[in-house]
Structures are given as C-alpha cells and as structure tokens.
Amino acid sequence: MTEVEAVADPSGLAAGSSQFLTFLLGAEQYGVEILRVQEIRGYSAVTPIPNTPAFIRGVINLRGTVVPVVDLRAKFSMEATEYNKFTVIIVVTVGVKVIGLVVDAVSDVLDIPASEIRKAPDLGARVDTRFISGMATIGDRMTVLLDMERLLSDDEVAALGSLS
Amino acid sequence: MQIDLNQFRDTFFQEAAEHLETMESALLALQTGRADSETLHAIFRCAHSTKAGAGTFGFEEMARFTHVLESLLDRLRNSEIPVTGPLVELLLHSVDVLRALVDAAARGDAPPPVWEEVLEELDRARGAQPGCGPAATNAEPQNGAASGVWDIRFEPAPELFRVSLDPFLVLRDLAELGKLTAKADLSRLPALEALDTETCYLSWRLRLETTAGLDQIRDAFAFCEDVATVSIEPAGVPEAPAVQDETKAASQPGLRTTVREGSMRVATDKVDRLIDLVGELVIAQSMAAEIMNGFTPECLPRLQEAMSEMERHTRELQDRAMRIRMLPVGSVFSRFPRLVHDTAKALGKQVALEISGEETELDKSVVERIADPLTHLVRNAVDHGIEMPADRERAGKPAEGTVRLRAYHQGGKVIIEVAEDGRGLDTERIRAKGIERGLIPADDALSDEQIHALIFHPGFSTAEQVSDLSGRGVGMDVVKKGVDALNGAVRIKTARGQGTTIRIKLPLTLAILDGLLLRLGEQTYVLPLVSIVESIRPRPEQVRDVAGLGEVVTVRKQSLPLLRLGRLFHIPTEVTDPSRGLVVIVEHEGGQLALLVDELLGQQQVVVKSLETNYRKVEGITGATVLGDGRAALILDIAGLAALSRGEPLSNLAA
Questions:
Q1: What is the value of pTM for the model shown?
Q2: Facing residues of A21 across strands?
Q3: Cβ-based contacts under 8 A for chains A and B
Q4: Does B522 touch chain A (CB under 8 A)?
Q5: Do residue B464 and residue B366 come from a single domain?
Q6: Quick one: average pLDDT of B355-372?
Q7: Closest residue in B to A156 (Cα–Cα)
Q8: How far is the C-alpha of B14 from the C-alpha of B1, rounded, in Å?
Q9: What is the pLDDT of residue B236?
Q10: Which of the residues A132, A153, B276, B591 has an alpha carbon 20 to 30 A from that of B299?
C-alpha cells in the first residue's frame, strides 16, 4: 500500500492561479484543489455502511480516524470497474470533515491560471454541473475541476436522519 | 516590561473563573450561616487577585469594578460594615456582573452596561469614603490636589523570590509615584555561608512623597499582598496596627478542577503515574526487542512472557490515560447551590440542597454533557417536585423541602441521583395525558414504570401552567436525549406524596466499549457487551413466522422478533437457516430482540471512533472502531436496529 503525501506550497504559485491534483475516471480527467488534498492512499479494504447511497462505499481506518469513502464513478453514474493496483483513494478535507475519494488513477499536479478556467457548459454532461467549479484545457487535455463542497453537501442534504 | 502579556491572558481568564466560583460558593455559605471569619477573607482575596490581573491586562472597567468590590469586602472583613442579607444579595449580583465583565473581556466585546449601576450600588454600600482599614483615618482623597507623605513598611515573606516576585520592581513602581526614600533593614541577613539565595531576608522602611492617593500606593503592592506584610500610613500618624495580609493559605483542596473549553487542569500525581507507566512500557518493549535480537525458537517462551508483560502495562496505561481526562463531577454540582437558591427564592419555596459524592470522577466530555440534563432535573425538582411551604406543612412535612444530589460508582458505571421529598409523580394524571396525546392506547395495561417513562416524551407535560422556568415539557425530553447520547440510562422512582428520585447511569468514559465481535458474511461488527442477554442456536421449532410481525424466536415462553442482520444490511451471509447459525438475544430500553449472525468471534475491548465526525449519524450504528488487522468495524446500536426492523424512523420511538 503506497502512501504519498501531497503538500501544498502556495508560495510557489503565480498570483491568480491555483494548483490542482488531477486524476482519472475512465478516460476523463478531473481535478481538485491541491490545498484540499490531505494525502493519497492505495485502495484498501473498505467497511461498508448499511443503508447508505451506492456511492458511499463505506469507511476506512485512516491512522485511527474513521473516514468515509466516496466512489466518484458511482456518484457520477459511470459504470463500475474493477479496482486494481492503480486504484487510489484521495483523502480530502471539506470544511471540517475528512473524506476519501476512490479514483482510477492519479495524474499530475497542474498549475492552472484562473484565466484559463472556464465556466462549465451545460451539455447534459455526465457530471451534474452543480459539482463542477470550472473546466480548463491544458495542452490538448481537458480537465473538469470539481467543487468538493457542493459534491458532498448535496449528499448530506439528501440524506435521511439528523446531522449531528 | 517587554514580555508579551497575551500568553498569560488565558491563564488570567481561567483563574478569574475559578475565583468567581469560589466567591459565589463562599457568599452562599455566608447566606446560609455556614460561614466563618475565613470566608470573608477568602472572598476578599478572590476579588483582590482578579483586580490585580484586570489592572495588569488593561481591562479598565473590570479593574474599576473589582476595586470598589474589593474595598467593600475589605470593610466587611474588618467588621466595619455588618454582613446583612441584602448586602450578600448585592454581592452575589456583583459576582454575576463580574462574570459578565470577564466573559466580555475574553470575547473582546464591550462590557455590559449594567456594570455601572451595580458599581454605584457597591459604592453606596461601602460608604462614601475610599477607606481600606483602620489605619487610614486621615487618608488622602483620591484626587490628590495636596501632596502627602507616607510611611511605608514593606516586609516580604522569606519565600517572596520563590513565587517569582522581585521587590525592586515594587520599589521602582513606588518611585514612579513621587519621591521615594528607602531604607533597607538588613537585620535578618545571615552570614554568607548560611545565605540561601532563594530566600528573601530583606525588608524596607520607605518614605514616599506623592500626590497619588492611598489606593494607588497600595496598588504597587498588588502582587505581593499575600506574601508580604505591608503597612502604609500618612507620615506622622502614630503607628496604627499594620494592615496584615496573611501569607497565602493552602489553596482549596483538590476538589476544584475546572475546565475551560480547550484546556483542563490535571492533578500532578495523575500525570506522574502516567509518566511512570510509560517508562515501564518502554522497558518492557526494549526487553522484547532484545529477545528478538538473534531470535531462535527456544526464545519463544521468553518472548511470550515479555509480550504479556507489555500487555499488562498497556492495559494499565490505557486506564491511567483515561483517568487524566476524568474530572470530579463536583465541578458540575458546584453550580447547583446557586441555582436552587435562586429558583426557590423566585418561587417562594424553601429548599435545602444536599450534595454528596462530588469527588466521583467522570470523563471530561461526559461531565460537560451531563451538566445541562442535570440542570433541568434540579430545576424541575424545585419547580415541580417540592411543594409550597404551606402545602408541605398541611401534608405533615417540614416546610423546607430537600433536594438531594448524589454521585457514586457502581459496577463500572457512575450513578447520579437527583432526589426530592416533594409531591411525587401523579401516575394517573400521566396516564390520562398519555391517552389524551395518543401515546398509549386507553386500555393498555402498562406498568407504573412504563407510564412514568412517558414524561420523557417530547412536549409532554402535565404542568397546569407554563412557568418561566419549566412546564413547557421541554426539559425531560432533553434530559433523556442527553443521557442516551452518552450511552447512559435514566430511571424514575416515585411515590405519591413522598417524592421522586431520578437515577442516571453513565459509562465512565465514552471512548472505550466492551464489545462482542460477530461475523456477517465477510464483515465484522461489534455488539456492545452490556446489551447482550444470551446467545443460542435455536431449534427449528423455536423459529416461527407470525402474521403481521415477521419472524419470531421463542425462548422460554417469550417470543422475540428475529432480525436477520444480513438482510437488513444487504450483506450476503453464510447462514440463512437460523437453526444453523447463532441467534444473539439483545436488549434495549424498549425490549428485547434476537439477531441472526454467522459467527461470534469473541470479546474485545474496542476504542470507539465517531462516525459523525466525518460522515453523519447512521441508524443502527453508534460508531466505528479499528480492529487488530487495521480494518474499520461498525458498532451496532440495538435501539436503532429495532427501529430499522420495524421500518420506523428512530425519532418517533417513544421512551
């Protein structure tokens, strides 16, 4: 199980840009702000939680803390895939919560100037545009930047039971 | 001074809070006639220390307020003003105001405007002159137009240096007030060989010519007053008795550990024992490591011994570490004398409060979270339990009612009881209200205890009027929720005309649970051991399908609903035939339940991790833990499972 710590270094950024960790889901590339990323872990056994939406795979033990794991493919209604040795869990912080995201593979950390980020067109994309904070094209690759807070607060709102 | 004072601000606030508590309980003792001469001195010292700190940190309003408060208290303790009931009430009120000032200062807000009115009242109460002791008969007025000359004797106690006080700073401060001449008294200095550099042998006779008033001069000695004898007289006045300040009395016995949000005070010996244990664990571990060095199979018995030694130490370490977070429940109880006093007064009732077991210790978070439920219960006891004095006398009871607060350990749990000798619960009225509210069917033969449990239902109240204090039916519901959230239980014992006792059972700590591990398919779950009644392998005849109820298991004439956990959790299980699997019978507040599992894996103490921290509350699950193999396992909540199996949302469950 590999464990890579991603550390944000904002001092190296040019003004008006932001660093994103990019990852793959199928053939498409997505990105999250690097400042949110706490660490990256290899996929390990997840304990399922009963009666939760399908995209909540369950929880894992992260050095003593219980962290829920979200399957982004399921969340974005992609077909399920076999987890293999490239499958990775990206641990992000959203507000005060720590969440894990299961992705197919991790790509590079990209420095994306704010000027390059476009608003997402509503093409009936597979990813609900509510969750997209923007899109950027670097070279010939398009990256969909995710709004983590919307992605996960949507889940909470839809959930039954009380928030503690 | 160049030192950044901000790092000490938090300490000041913490100490101020403690001083306020001390003042309050001392004042209450005064009121009930349980005070002695020391009490007044203690109250004075608290005000004094707070004043000194307020001045240092520049909290002007607080400093002014405590200054007047202190001089009033000084006159009281010197018997210049008699202690009267209204005066004590005023002092209690000023403690509240001071608390508000401290809170405002801590938050950086403006002080509440009421402080100035109370300041004026305090001023009136202490008399017009700014006096402070019999010596100051010719005291200078504060707005020193005239310059005065003062004779000052400054005799520090030998331990002055050891409490980090430097007399030269005092002299320097005095010198800033005017013209100072100082003569040191070296008579106590020993020969050089006998000199202890950490002891103060010096004292001074000083003469100060200043336009400053007596109060300002005294302020220079603010920090030393407890470790020095200081007398300040206008020059030329015959030597009046020195204003004695006692050397610091032994601080309050360990009962007062207070908690302020992110930090807490811990008794030193607890920390010492913890450190000792860590040392022993390190030794045991290095012994094991040594055995591993050049390990051969013959070393195995020694290794096993070393491992069990380490296990012993680890267990004790865990126990001790948890104790660090444990606070005496008295820290919560301490607010109740005031509460009972104020509530009884507001209602025109006479109530005495008896407290025992304050030293019983509980985890800090349990103590904090039980405070609100207990407050509700105590308030209820005074408001609804205890009758008016006239009614009590008519019933042949003493006019003064008693509320008894007790805490003790029993069987690995902590019990807190709130008992009163009031009117007791009216079972019939509760039953009637329950029927009226549709909570119970009219013809149901429920036990008294089950009827009484209705009062925990949200919105349930048989009170005729809603008073400011209670009667909205909100309190008991909150109590039950609070106790449940702590994995505790609450029971009522009552007798009409004699009184009611509410008994709360709490775990010592939230963090550790005795659990039974069970297997469902490939997943491991944890059942709280306390909830388990027994486990059986039922015979096929014992399991039946009952129309409308689902499957039941009959054990010794009792039929219990059978819950197939695998189905409920959508997990493929090994066993589908109950007579081939294991059925665990568990109980919760509402009854018993039978759970079908694949296998029982053994008993284990598990550390409870919150699921809500990063996710949310899940019905049927109270939390998670990490097993020996590093995987997370979920801890089951029986009441939640019962609700799930009935298809009900949990919040609709009646007590």
A1: 0.52
A2: A32, A109
A3: 83
A4: no
A5: yes
A6: 86
A7: B616
A8: 23
A9: 58
A10: B276
- B621 closest CB neighbour out of A49, A156, A162: A49
**CA nearest to B582, candidates B568, B562, B567:** B562
Q: Are residues B147 and B218 in the same domain?
A: yes
Residue B23 domain flag = yes
Beta bridge partners, B414, equal B409, B506
Query: Where is pLDDT greater, at A85 or B527?
Result: B527
Query: What ipTM, to 2 d.p.?
Result: 0.76
- Compare CB distances from A66 to B523, B571, B632 and report the shortest one's residue: B632
The pair phi, psi for residue B524, each rounded to 5°, is -110, 135
Higher pLDDT pick, A106 / A152: A106
Q: Is the predicted pLDDT of residue B465 greater than 50, yes or no?
A: no
What stretches of A22-75 show up as alpha helix (H) in DSSP? 72-75
Q: Which residues pair with B401 in a beta bridge?
A: B351
CATH number, position A72: 2.40.50.180
- For residue B25, pLDDT over 70 is answered with yes
| Domain total in chain A | 1
* Planar angle of CA B613, B518, B644, nearest 5 degrees: 60
Q: What is the pLDDT of residue B584?
A: 94
> Residue holding tokens 């006080």?
B165
**Cβ–Cβ < 8 Å for B160, B200:** yes
Select the residue from B613, B614, B629 to test the A interface by mutation, using most A Cβ atoms within 10 A: B614
Domain membership of residue B256 (yes or no) is no
* Per-residue 3-state assignment (H helix, E strand, C coil) for B317-338: HHHHHHHHCEEECHHHHCCHHH
Does pLDDT of B143 surpass 50? no
For residue A15, what pLDDT is reported? 52
Strands B203-210 and B178-185: antiparallel
* Chain A CB within 8 Å of residue B650 CB: yes
Would you tell me the crossing angle of helices B6-31 and B37-57 to the nearest 10 degrees? Answer: 160
To test the contact with chain B by mutation, choose from A41, A61, A89, A156 the residue with the greatest count of B C-beta atoms within 10 A, namely: A61
pLDDT, one tens digit per residue, over B199-220 is 888 888 888 888 877 777 777 7
Which residue type occupies B92?
Answer: L
Question: What mean pLDDT, rounded, does chain B reach?
Answer: 79
Substitution target in B510, B615, B629, B631 with the highest count of A β-carbons within 10 Å is B615
Nearest CA in chain B to A157: B616
Same structural domain, B11 and B102: yes
Contacts of B161 (CB under 8 A, 6+ apart): B198, B199, B200
Q: What is the CA radius of gyration of chain B?
A: 33
Q: Which of B570, B610, B616 sits opposite A163 (nearest CB)?
A: B616
Q: Does B612 touch chain A (CB under 8 A)?
A: yes
- Per-residue pLDDT, averaged over B413-436, amounts to 86
Q: How far apart are the first and last CA of chain B?
A: 62
Work out whether strand A141-146 and strand A132-138 pair parallel, antiparallel, or are unpaired. Answer: antiparallel
Mean per-residue pLDDT for A78-100?
87
CATH of the domain at B352: 3.30.565.10
A47:B651 CB<8 A: no
The secondary element (H helix, E strand) that includes residue B418 is: strand B413-420
Q: Give the residue, B414 or B2, on which the prediction is more confident.
A: B414
Token pair of B80 as six digits: 């210049």
Range of the domain at A152: 3-10+17-158
Quick one: pLDDT at residue B34? 64
Q: Is the dihedral of CA B7, B10, B12, B15 positive or negative?
A: negative
